[in-house]
TrEMBL record:
Any Pfam family matching the protein: Myb_DNA-binding
GO CC list: nucleus
First-listed, main subcellular location of the protein, grouped into a coarse class: nucleus
Protein name (Swiss-Prot/TrEMBL): Uncharacterized protein
Organism: Triticum turgidum subsp. durum (Durum wheat)
Length: 278
DNA sequence: AAGTGGCTCAACCGCAGGCGG
DNA sequence: ACCGCCTGCGGTTGAGCCACT
């Protein structure tokens, strides 16, 4: 059985909203709220619009305290960090940026941040070809793509969500908010392909510093992975892999690479990087 | 000045999940 | 337990704008 259409497409108006339509919608919602029924709302106020369209217009444009215009560096950082951690969960990311809508963030990511970030990761002195962008994006956020050759015991995304408190609708906002408040950098590294973002490297390095005392003998210094201008050095991936392999405390097992912790405990490298050791 | 290509962003589309009957 | 409706979400589209030739 087919899905019932949300509205009569023959009589519904599409395209850009006129100031009059905006005014009608805003006035009604200001006075009465949405009434919990977007489908019925346009009929009530005499708009030839689909309920979904009204909802979108309200959420993305008419709602009070909506911020438009350029994103701040801090906002960019939060978006990047969260994207790396949880992927394209725009609504969750938007919840961390008051006044920003998921649509805004999605657009900003797709048109600017993605290019900015991927461009930064391009091999030094080279620009990215179209195919490279696709591949690089998959590496940047494997959870968004099909290929992902790093072992992900238990499913990374699910575990991230669980750790971050995404289990419930209420938990989503609250959980992420508190995590970000503590340290947005602490969330970085979720999309643990082979560390294709600056933040991941930064994060790993901070982890390494923090952990140095916890490991017997410490860990080898993380190799230089970036050029002074922020571009990745040639062979950054290989260097990172070599660095991992050079750590005495990484004991390969069938379940993935394990860290040998002081006191006899061991844990999955990925869990460690993701902060499940807390 | 006109044509063209790239970029931006508002809006649409379709799917998944929640919820009530 | 099942079904249908509604909402919310993420992906995609396309009109308008802008820069470049």
């Amino acid at each position: 059985m087919g899905r019932a259409p949300c509205c009569d497409k023959a009589t519904v108006k599409k395209g850009p909203w006129s100031p009059e339509e905006d005014a009608k919608l805003k006035a009604y919602i200001d006075e009465n709220g949405t009434g919990g029924n977007w489908i019925a709302l346009p009929q009530k106020i005499g708009l030839k619009r689909c309920g979904k369209s009204c909802r979108l217009r309200w959420l993305n444009y008419l709602r009070p305290n909506i911020k438009h215009g350029d994103f701040t560096e801090e906002e960019e950082h939060i978006i990047c960090s969260l994207y790396i951690s949880i992927g394209s969960r725009w609504s969750i990311i938007a919840a961390q940026l008051p006044g920003r809508t998921d649509n805004d963030i999605k657009n900003y990511w797709n048109t600017k941040l993605k290019k900015k970030l991927l461009g930064k990761r391009a091999p030094h002195g080279h620009s990215l070809a179209a195919a490279d962008v696709v591949e690089a994006e998959q590496q940047l956020n494997p959870s968004a793509g099909a290929s992902y050759d790093m072992p992900v015991p238990g499913g990374f995304e699910e575990r991230s969500a669980s750790k971050l408190g995404f289990g419930s609708a209420a938990g989503e906002a609250a959980g992420v908010a508190s995590t970000v408040e503590m340290s947005s950098a602490s969330m970085v590294g979720g999309g643990f392909g082979y560390g294709h973002v600056d933040e991941l490297y930064d994060f790993l390095y901070s982890k390494q510093l923090a952990a140095a005392g916890a490991f017997q003998g410490g860990v080898p210094p993380l190799p230089e992975l970036q050029c002074p201008d922020g571009g990745a050095v040639v062979g950054a991936d290989e260097k990172f892999s070599t660095w991992m392999a050079s750590c005495d405390h990484y004991v390969p097992t069938t379940g993935g690479q394990q860290l040998q912790l002081q006191g006899g405990n061991s844990m999955n490298l990925q869990d460690f990087v993701l902060g499940y050791d807390q």
